[in-house]
Protein backbone atom coordinates (compact mmCIF):
# COMPACT_ATOMS: atom_id res chain seq x y z
CA UNK A 1 0.00 0.00 0.00
CA UNK A 2 1.22 3.48 -0.79
CA UNK A 3 1.85 5.76 2.20
CA UNK A 4 1.82 9.54 2.16
CA UNK A 5 3.34 11.70 4.89
CA UNK A 6 0.81 13.83 6.72
CA UNK A 7 3.20 16.73 7.34
CA UNK A 8 5.35 18.65 4.87
CA UNK A 9 9.12 18.20 5.04
CA UNK A 10 11.72 20.95 5.17
CA UNK A 11 15.10 20.39 3.50
CA UNK A 12 18.39 22.24 3.72
CA UNK A 13 19.50 23.39 0.26
CA UNK A 14 23.18 23.11 1.26
CA UNK A 15 23.54 19.64 2.75
CA UNK A 16 20.13 17.98 2.26
CA UNK A 17 19.26 17.72 5.98
CA UNK A 18 15.51 17.33 6.56
CA UNK A 19 13.19 18.23 9.43
CA UNK A 20 9.43 18.13 9.98
CA UNK A 21 9.23 21.84 10.81
CA UNK A 22 10.96 24.98 9.68
CA UNK A 23 14.05 26.19 11.52
CA UNK A 24 16.25 29.17 10.79
CA UNK A 25 19.51 27.23 11.08
CA UNK A 26 20.36 23.86 9.61
CA UNK A 27 20.97 21.25 12.28
CA UNK A 28 23.62 19.47 10.17
CA UNK A 29 25.79 22.09 8.41
CA UNK A 30 24.81 24.99 10.73
CA UNK A 31 24.03 27.28 7.75
CA UNK A 32 21.46 30.05 8.25
CA UNK A 33 18.43 30.59 6.01
CA UNK A 34 18.91 27.43 3.92
CA UNK A 35 15.98 25.33 5.22
CA UNK A 36 13.09 25.43 2.74
CA UNK A 37 9.74 23.67 2.62
CA UNK A 38 9.47 20.68 0.35
CA UNK A 39 6.69 18.17 -0.03
CA UNK A 40 7.45 14.87 1.60
CA UNK A 41 8.11 12.11 -0.94
CA UNK A 42 5.56 9.36 -1.32
CA UNK A 43 6.60 5.84 -0.47
CA UNK A 44 5.25 3.38 -2.98
CA UNK A 45 5.32 -0.38 -3.07
CA UNK A 46 8.00 -1.73 -5.42
CA UNK A 47 7.09 -4.84 -7.40
CA UNK A 48 9.64 -7.47 -8.30
CA UNK A 49 10.69 -7.65 -11.96
CA UNK A 50 12.61 -10.35 -13.83
CA UNK A 51 16.31 -9.40 -14.21
CA UNK A 52 17.72 -8.84 -17.68
CA UNK A 53 20.79 -10.93 -16.82
CA UNK A 54 20.98 -13.66 -14.24
CA UNK A 55 23.44 -13.67 -11.37
CA UNK A 56 26.63 -15.69 -11.91
CA UNK A 57 29.27 -17.00 -9.50
CA UNK A 58 31.79 -14.30 -8.69
CA UNK A 59 34.72 -16.41 -9.90
CA UNK A 60 33.12 -16.61 -13.37
CA UNK A 61 32.78 -12.85 -13.84
CA UNK A 62 35.14 -11.78 -16.67
CA UNK A 63 37.87 -9.32 -15.69
CA UNK A 64 38.94 -8.18 -19.16
CA UNK A 65 36.49 -5.27 -19.13
CA UNK A 66 38.00 -3.87 -15.91
CA UNK A 67 41.67 -3.82 -16.88
CA UNK A 68 43.35 -0.55 -15.97
CA UNK A 69 44.61 1.90 -18.55
CA UNK A 70 47.51 4.25 -17.81
CA UNK A 71 46.60 7.93 -17.88
CA UNK A 72 50.07 8.98 -19.02
CA UNK A 73 50.75 10.84 -15.72
CA UNK A 74 52.80 8.52 -13.55
CA UNK A 75 52.10 10.26 -10.25
CA UNK A 76 48.35 10.24 -10.89
CA UNK A 77 48.44 6.56 -11.86
CA UNK A 78 50.25 5.91 -8.59
CA UNK A 79 47.43 7.53 -6.60
CA UNK A 80 44.73 5.75 -8.61
CA UNK A 81 46.33 2.38 -7.89
CA UNK A 82 47.84 1.70 -11.33
CA UNK A 83 45.66 3.63 -13.78
CA UNK A 84 42.07 4.38 -14.70
CA UNK A 85 39.49 1.58 -14.56
CA UNK A 86 36.91 1.63 -17.40
CA UNK A 87 33.63 2.96 -16.04
CA UNK A 88 35.25 4.56 -13.00
CA UNK A 89 34.12 8.02 -11.89
CA UNK A 90 36.86 10.10 -10.27
CA UNK A 91 36.22 13.36 -8.39
CA UNK A 92 39.15 15.79 -8.10
CA UNK A 93 38.50 18.59 -5.60
CA UNK A 94 40.64 21.53 -4.60
CA UNK A 95 40.77 25.25 -3.92
CA UNK A 96 40.50 27.78 -6.76
CA UNK A 97 43.75 28.29 -8.64
CA UNK A 98 45.45 25.18 -7.28
CA UNK A 99 45.76 23.67 -10.79
CA UNK A 100 42.87 21.21 -11.13
CA UNK A 101 41.97 22.20 -14.69
CA UNK A 102 45.62 22.25 -15.75
CA UNK A 103 46.22 18.75 -14.41
CA UNK A 104 43.13 17.16 -15.99
CA UNK A 105 43.74 18.93 -19.31
CA UNK A 106 47.21 17.36 -19.25
CA UNK A 107 45.67 13.96 -18.48
CA UNK A 108 43.18 14.38 -21.35
CA UNK A 109 46.00 15.25 -23.76
CA UNK A 110 48.10 12.22 -22.76
CA UNK A 111 45.05 9.97 -23.05
CA UNK A 112 44.28 11.30 -26.54
CA UNK A 113 47.88 11.00 -27.75
CA UNK A 114 47.61 7.26 -27.13
CA UNK A 115 44.91 7.11 -29.83
CA UNK A 116 41.97 7.05 -27.42
CA UNK A 117 39.02 9.40 -27.98
CA UNK A 118 38.71 12.01 -25.23
CA UNK A 119 35.98 14.59 -24.56
CA UNK A 120 36.74 17.64 -22.38
CA UNK A 121 33.60 19.54 -21.29
CA UNK A 122 34.19 23.00 -19.84
CA UNK A 123 31.37 24.64 -17.91
CA UNK A 124 33.43 27.52 -16.53
CA UNK A 125 35.46 28.69 -19.54
CA UNK A 126 34.74 29.13 -23.21
CA UNK A 127 36.25 26.79 -25.77
CA UNK A 128 38.65 29.54 -26.90
CA UNK A 129 39.94 30.04 -23.35
CA UNK A 130 40.57 26.33 -22.89
CA UNK A 131 42.29 26.21 -26.29
CA UNK A 132 44.56 29.07 -25.23
CA UNK A 133 45.62 27.22 -22.07
CA UNK A 134 46.11 23.98 -23.99
CA UNK A 135 48.46 25.77 -26.38
CA UNK A 136 50.46 27.21 -23.50
CA UNK A 137 50.82 23.85 -21.74
CA UNK A 138 51.34 21.81 -24.94
CA UNK A 139 48.13 19.85 -24.35
CA UNK A 140 46.98 19.64 -27.98
CA UNK A 141 46.07 16.25 -29.50
CA UNK A 142 44.05 15.09 -32.51
CA UNK A 143 41.78 12.79 -30.48
CA UNK A 144 41.03 15.43 -27.83
CA UNK A 145 37.58 16.95 -28.39
CA UNK A 146 36.45 20.09 -26.60
CA UNK A 147 32.97 21.40 -25.76
CA UNK A 148 31.82 24.32 -23.63
CA UNK A 149 28.42 23.34 -22.18
CA UNK A 150 26.47 23.78 -18.96
CA UNK A 151 23.36 21.72 -19.79
CA UNK A 152 23.43 18.04 -18.82
CA UNK A 153 21.31 16.95 -21.79
CA UNK A 154 23.69 18.62 -24.23
CA UNK A 155 26.68 17.05 -22.49
CA UNK A 156 25.13 13.61 -22.84
CA UNK A 157 24.45 14.40 -26.51
CA UNK A 158 28.15 15.18 -27.02
CA UNK A 159 29.00 11.85 -25.41
CA UNK A 160 26.69 10.01 -27.80
CA UNK A 161 28.14 11.86 -30.78
CA UNK A 162 31.88 11.55 -30.02
CA UNK A 163 31.80 8.17 -28.18
CA UNK A 164 34.84 8.92 -25.98
CA UNK A 165 36.67 6.50 -23.70
CA UNK A 166 37.44 9.34 -21.27
CA UNK A 167 35.17 12.22 -20.26
CA UNK A 168 36.48 15.22 -18.30
CA UNK A 169 33.90 17.60 -16.78
CA UNK A 170 35.11 20.98 -15.48
CA UNK A 171 33.30 21.36 -13.20
CA UNK A 172 30.37 19.30 -11.92
CA UNK A 173 28.93 22.28 -10.00
CA UNK A 174 28.45 24.24 -13.23
CA UNK A 175 26.37 21.58 -15.04
CA UNK A 176 22.59 21.72 -14.57
CA UNK A 177 19.53 19.89 -15.81
CA UNK A 178 15.97 21.09 -16.32
CA UNK A 179 14.69 17.85 -14.81
CA UNK A 180 15.74 18.93 -11.30
CA UNK A 181 14.88 21.96 -9.20
CA UNK A 182 17.34 24.51 -7.91
CA UNK A 183 20.20 26.52 -9.36
CA UNK A 184 23.47 25.05 -10.72
CA UNK A 185 25.69 23.96 -7.87
CA UNK A 186 22.78 23.32 -5.51
CA UNK A 187 22.26 20.06 -3.67
CA UNK A 188 19.55 18.74 -5.98
CA UNK A 189 21.32 19.73 -9.20
CA UNK A 190 24.69 18.28 -8.18
CA UNK A 191 23.04 15.03 -7.08
CA UNK A 192 21.11 14.60 -10.32
CA UNK A 193 24.02 15.57 -12.59
CA UNK A 194 26.48 13.28 -10.83
CA UNK A 195 24.01 10.41 -10.80
CA UNK A 196 23.44 10.75 -14.56
CA UNK A 197 27.18 10.84 -15.28
CA UNK A 198 27.76 7.78 -13.09
CA UNK A 199 25.04 5.85 -14.92
CA UNK A 200 26.38 6.65 -18.38
CA UNK A 201 29.93 5.86 -17.25
CA UNK A 202 28.92 2.39 -16.04
CA UNK A 203 26.76 1.61 -19.06
CA UNK A 204 29.39 2.66 -21.65
CA UNK A 205 32.52 1.56 -19.77
CA UNK A 206 33.78 5.14 -20.02
CA UNK A 207 36.10 6.65 -17.42
CA UNK A 208 34.89 10.00 -16.10
CA UNK A 209 36.98 12.68 -14.37
CA UNK A 210 35.01 15.33 -12.49
CA UNK A 211 36.39 18.58 -11.10
CA UNK A 212 34.72 19.69 -7.88
CA UNK A 213 34.76 22.89 -5.88
CA UNK A 214 35.50 23.13 -2.16
CA UNK A 215 33.99 25.34 0.51
CA UNK A 216 35.91 27.85 2.60
CA UNK A 217 36.39 25.10 5.20
CA UNK A 218 38.13 22.89 2.63
CA UNK A 219 35.25 20.41 2.28
CA UNK A 220 33.86 19.34 -1.09
CA UNK A 221 30.99 21.62 -2.08
CA UNK A 222 27.58 20.06 -2.55
CA UNK A 223 25.83 17.18 -0.79
CA UNK A 224 27.81 14.56 1.07
CA UNK A 225 26.13 12.06 -1.21
CA UNK A 226 28.44 13.26 -4.00
CA UNK A 227 31.42 11.50 -2.43
CA UNK A 228 29.40 8.30 -2.07
CA UNK A 229 28.28 8.28 -5.71
CA UNK A 230 31.75 8.45 -7.23
CA UNK A 231 34.35 5.67 -7.13
CA UNK A 232 37.44 7.73 -6.33
CA UNK A 233 37.81 11.01 -4.44
CA UNK A 234 41.08 12.91 -4.86
CA UNK A 235 42.06 16.04 -2.94
CA UNK A 236 44.35 18.48 -4.75
CA UNK A 237 46.37 20.34 -2.12
CA UNK A 238 48.99 23.04 -2.26
CA UNK A 239 50.04 26.45 -1.02
CA UNK A 240 49.24 29.22 -3.50
CA UNK A 241 52.62 30.81 -2.65
CA UNK A 242 54.47 27.61 -3.58
CA UNK A 243 54.51 25.64 -6.81
CA UNK A 244 54.43 22.28 -5.04
CA UNK A 245 51.14 20.36 -5.28
CA UNK A 246 49.95 17.05 -3.83
CA UNK A 247 47.13 14.79 -5.00
CA UNK A 248 45.85 12.74 -2.10
CA UNK A 249 43.35 9.86 -2.38
CA UNK A 250 40.69 10.03 0.32
CA UNK A 251 38.51 7.30 -1.21
CA UNK A 252 39.45 4.66 -3.77
CA UNK A 253 37.37 1.61 -4.60
CA UNK A 254 40.08 0.22 -6.89
CA UNK A 255 43.27 0.85 -4.94
CA UNK A 256 44.83 2.19 -1.74
CA UNK A 257 43.08 5.15 -0.15
CA UNK A 258 46.23 6.57 1.47
CA UNK A 259 48.46 7.20 -1.57
CA UNK A 260 49.89 10.59 -2.55
CA UNK A 261 51.16 11.99 -5.85
CA UNK A 262 53.49 14.98 -6.09
CA UNK A 263 53.50 17.69 -8.76
CA UNK A 264 55.07 21.08 -9.39
CA UNK A 265 53.11 23.91 -11.02
CA UNK A 266 55.28 25.79 -13.53
CA UNK A 267 54.66 28.42 -16.23
CA UNK A 268 54.38 25.75 -18.94
CA UNK A 269 51.87 23.63 -17.04
CA UNK A 270 52.33 21.01 -14.36
CA UNK A 271 55.22 18.56 -13.94
CA UNK A 272 55.51 15.34 -12.02
CA UNK A 273 57.87 15.20 -9.03
CA UNK A 274 58.74 11.53 -8.51
CA UNK A 275 61.37 12.33 -5.83
CA UNK A 276 60.05 15.31 -3.82
CA UNK A 277 62.17 14.93 -0.67
CA UNK A 278 64.70 17.53 -1.77
CA UNK A 279 62.00 20.20 -2.10
CA UNK A 280 61.48 20.33 1.67
CA UNK A 281 65.14 20.59 2.70
CA UNK A 282 67.18 23.78 2.46
CA UNK A 283 70.57 23.41 0.82
CA UNK A 284 72.39 25.67 3.30
CA UNK A 285 74.68 24.39 6.05
CA UNK A 286 73.16 23.46 9.38
CA UNK A 287 72.26 26.50 11.46
CA UNK A 288 70.75 26.79 14.95
CA UNK A 289 67.05 26.06 14.97
CA UNK A 290 66.85 23.45 12.17
CA UNK A 291 66.12 19.74 12.27
CA UNK A 292 65.26 17.01 9.76
CA UNK A 293 62.52 14.40 10.01
CA UNK A 294 60.85 11.87 7.69
CA UNK A 295 57.09 12.05 7.28
CA UNK A 296 54.85 9.47 5.64
CA UNK A 297 52.54 10.83 2.95
CA UNK A 298 50.45 7.78 2.25
CA UNK A 299 53.02 5.02 1.75
CA UNK A 300 55.70 7.42 0.52
CA UNK A 301 58.42 8.63 2.94
CA UNK A 302 59.34 12.31 2.52
CA UNK A 303 62.18 14.15 4.20
CA UNK A 304 61.07 17.44 5.71
CA UNK A 305 62.90 20.21 7.50
CA UNK A 306 61.41 22.11 10.41
CA UNK A 307 62.78 25.40 11.69
CA UNK A 308 62.38 27.22 14.98
CA UNK A 309 63.42 30.63 16.26
CA UNK A 310 63.53 31.25 20.01
CA UNK A 311 64.17 34.80 21.22
CA UNK A 312 63.73 36.66 24.48
CA UNK A 313 60.34 38.25 24.96
CA UNK A 314 60.36 42.02 25.28
CA UNK A 315 59.53 43.69 28.58
CA UNK A 316 55.86 43.98 29.47
CA UNK A 317 54.92 41.60 26.63
CA UNK A 318 53.41 38.15 26.49
CA UNK A 319 55.51 35.50 24.70
CA UNK A 320 54.28 34.86 21.16
CA UNK A 321 53.75 31.43 19.63
CA UNK A 322 53.60 31.44 15.83
CA UNK A 323 53.61 28.41 13.50
CA UNK A 324 53.50 28.04 9.70
CA UNK A 325 52.96 24.61 8.15
CA UNK A 326 52.89 23.03 11.63
CA UNK A 327 50.12 22.28 14.10
CA UNK A 328 50.12 25.16 16.57
CA UNK A 329 48.49 23.08 19.32
CA UNK A 330 51.28 20.51 19.14
CA UNK A 331 53.84 23.31 19.22
CA UNK A 332 52.33 24.63 22.44
CA UNK A 333 52.36 21.14 23.93
CA UNK A 334 56.00 20.54 22.99
CA UNK A 335 57.06 23.87 24.47
CA UNK A 336 55.39 22.88 27.75
CA UNK A 337 57.15 19.48 27.72
CA UNK A 338 60.55 21.07 27.06
CA UNK A 339 60.03 23.55 29.87
CA UNK A 340 58.88 20.94 32.38
CA UNK A 341 61.06 17.94 31.48
CA UNK A 342 64.18 19.61 30.05
CA UNK A 343 64.28 22.64 32.34
CA UNK A 344 64.11 25.21 29.53
CA UNK A 345 62.45 28.45 30.72
CA UNK A 346 60.57 28.97 27.47
CA UNK A 347 57.81 30.93 29.21
CA UNK A 348 60.03 34.01 28.80
CA UNK A 349 60.83 33.29 25.14
CA UNK A 350 59.06 34.02 21.87
CA UNK A 351 58.89 30.94 19.64
CA UNK A 352 58.33 30.88 15.88
CA UNK A 353 58.23 27.53 14.06
CA UNK A 354 57.72 26.66 10.39
CA UNK A 355 58.30 24.00 7.77
CA UNK A 356 60.45 24.46 4.65
CA UNK A 357 59.16 24.48 1.09
CA UNK A 358 55.49 25.03 1.86
CA UNK A 359 54.98 21.49 3.20
CA UNK A 360 52.39 20.88 5.89
CA UNK A 361 53.99 18.76 8.61
CA UNK A 362 51.18 17.68 10.92
CA UNK A 363 52.21 14.08 11.59
CA UNK A 364 53.01 13.38 15.30
CA UNK A 365 56.25 11.65 14.24
CA UNK A 366 57.70 15.15 13.63
CA UNK A 367 57.43 16.03 17.33
CA UNK A 368 61.03 15.08 18.11
CA UNK A 369 62.42 17.06 15.16
CA UNK A 370 60.49 20.15 16.25
CA UNK A 371 61.76 19.72 19.82
CA UNK A 372 65.35 19.44 18.51
CA UNK A 373 64.89 22.60 16.42
CA UNK A 374 63.51 24.53 19.41
CA UNK A 375 66.34 23.31 21.68
CA UNK A 376 68.96 24.17 19.06
CA UNK A 377 67.62 27.69 18.68
CA UNK A 378 67.35 28.08 22.46
CA UNK A 379 71.02 27.24 23.09
CA UNK A 380 71.94 29.11 19.87
CA UNK A 381 74.25 26.32 18.72
CA UNK A 382 74.34 23.34 16.40
CA UNK A 383 75.53 20.27 18.32
CA UNK A 384 77.83 17.98 16.36
CA UNK A 385 75.26 15.21 16.11
CA UNK A 386 72.47 17.34 14.64
CA UNK A 387 73.98 18.12 11.22
CA UNK A 388 73.58 14.66 9.63
CA UNK A 389 70.85 13.25 11.89
CA UNK A 390 67.15 12.60 11.39
CA UNK A 391 64.77 12.71 14.36
CA UNK A 392 61.68 10.47 14.51
CA UNK A 393 59.20 10.09 17.33
CA UNK A 394 56.00 11.29 18.92
CA UNK A 395 56.47 13.01 22.27
CA UNK A 396 54.08 12.38 25.12
CA UNK A 397 53.30 14.70 28.01
CA UNK A 398 55.72 12.79 30.26
CA UNK A 399 58.53 13.41 27.77
CA UNK A 400 58.53 9.81 26.52
CA UNK A 401 59.03 8.94 22.85
CA UNK A 402 56.24 6.88 21.34
CA UNK A 403 56.58 4.56 18.38
CA UNK A 404 55.66 5.70 14.87
CA UNK A 405 54.56 3.56 11.89
CA UNK A 406 56.74 2.77 8.87
CA UNK A 407 60.08 3.23 10.64
CA UNK A 408 61.96 0.91 8.27
CA UNK A 409 60.91 2.91 5.20
CA UNK A 410 61.76 6.17 6.95
CA UNK A 411 65.24 4.92 7.86
CA UNK A 412 65.86 3.69 4.30
CA UNK A 413 64.82 7.08 2.88
CA UNK A 414 67.16 8.91 5.27
CA UNK A 415 70.05 6.66 4.28
CA UNK A 416 69.29 7.13 0.58
CA UNK A 417 69.65 10.87 0.92
CA UNK A 418 72.96 10.68 2.79
CA UNK A 419 72.03 10.98 6.46
CA UNK A 420 74.09 8.76 8.75
CA UNK A 421 72.12 8.85 12.05
CA UNK A 422 68.46 8.37 12.90
CA UNK A 423 67.01 8.87 16.38
CA UNK A 424 64.01 6.57 16.94
CA UNK A 425 61.81 5.74 19.96
CA UNK A 426 63.30 3.05 22.18
CA UNK A 427 59.94 1.28 22.30
CA UNK A 428 60.72 -0.10 18.84
CA UNK A 429 63.25 -2.46 20.40
CA UNK A 430 64.46 -3.52 23.82
CA UNK A 431 67.15 -1.31 25.37
CA UNK A 432 68.93 1.83 24.18
CA UNK A 433 71.82 0.22 22.30
CA UNK A 434 72.42 1.62 18.82
CA UNK A 435 72.45 -0.59 15.72
CA UNK A 436 72.97 -0.29 11.97
CA UNK A 437 70.21 -0.56 9.37
CA UNK A 438 70.39 0.33 5.66
CA UNK A 439 73.84 1.82 6.23
CA UNK A 440 72.49 4.19 8.89
CA UNK A 441 73.28 4.27 12.60
CA UNK A 442 69.98 3.95 14.43
CA UNK A 443 69.99 5.31 17.98
CA UNK A 444 66.98 4.45 20.15
CA UNK A 445 65.93 6.99 22.80
CA UNK A 446 63.38 6.49 25.54
CA UNK A 447 62.68 10.16 26.25
CA UNK A 448 63.18 13.52 24.62
CA UNK A 449 65.90 14.21 27.20
CA UNK A 450 67.78 11.09 26.04
CA UNK A 451 67.46 12.15 22.42
CA UNK A 452 68.87 15.62 23.11
CA UNK A 453 71.73 14.04 25.03
CA UNK A 454 72.57 11.66 22.18
CA UNK A 455 72.69 14.60 19.77
CA UNK A 456 75.21 16.42 21.93
CA UNK A 457 73.14 19.17 23.50
CA UNK A 458 74.89 20.68 26.54
CA UNK A 459 73.47 19.92 29.93
CA UNK A 460 73.74 23.52 31.01
CA UNK A 461 70.81 25.73 30.08
CA UNK A 462 71.04 29.46 29.88
CA UNK A 463 68.76 31.29 32.31
TrEMBL record:
Gene label: radA
Chain positions recorded as ATP binding sites: 94-101
Its job: Plays a role in repairing double-strand DNA breaks, probably involving stabilizing or processing branched DNA or blocked replication forks. DNA-dependent ATPase involved in processing of recombination intermediates, plays a role in repairing DNA breaks. Stimulates the branch migration of RecA-mediated strand transfer reactions, allowing the 3' invading strand to extend heteroduplex DNA faster. Binds ssDNA in the presence of ADP but not other nucleotides, has ATPase activity that is stimulated by ssDNA and various branched DNA structures, but inhibited by SSB. Does not have RecA's homology-searching function.
Keyword Membrane attached: no
SMART domains: AAA (SM00382)
Motif (RadA KNRFG motif): 251-255
GO biological process, one term: proteolysis
Presence of the UniProt keyword DNA-binding in the record: yes
Species this chain originates from: Naumannella halotolerans
Region annotated Lon-protease-like, chain positions: 350-463
Entry keywords, A to Z: ATP-binding, DNA damage, DNA repair, DNA-binding, Hydrolase, Metal-binding, Nucleotide-binding, Stress response, Zinc, Zinc-finger
Domain comment, as recorded: The middle region has homology to RecA with ATPase motifs including the RadA KNRFG motif, while the C-terminus is homologous to Lon protease.
Protein name in the entry: DNA repair protein RadA
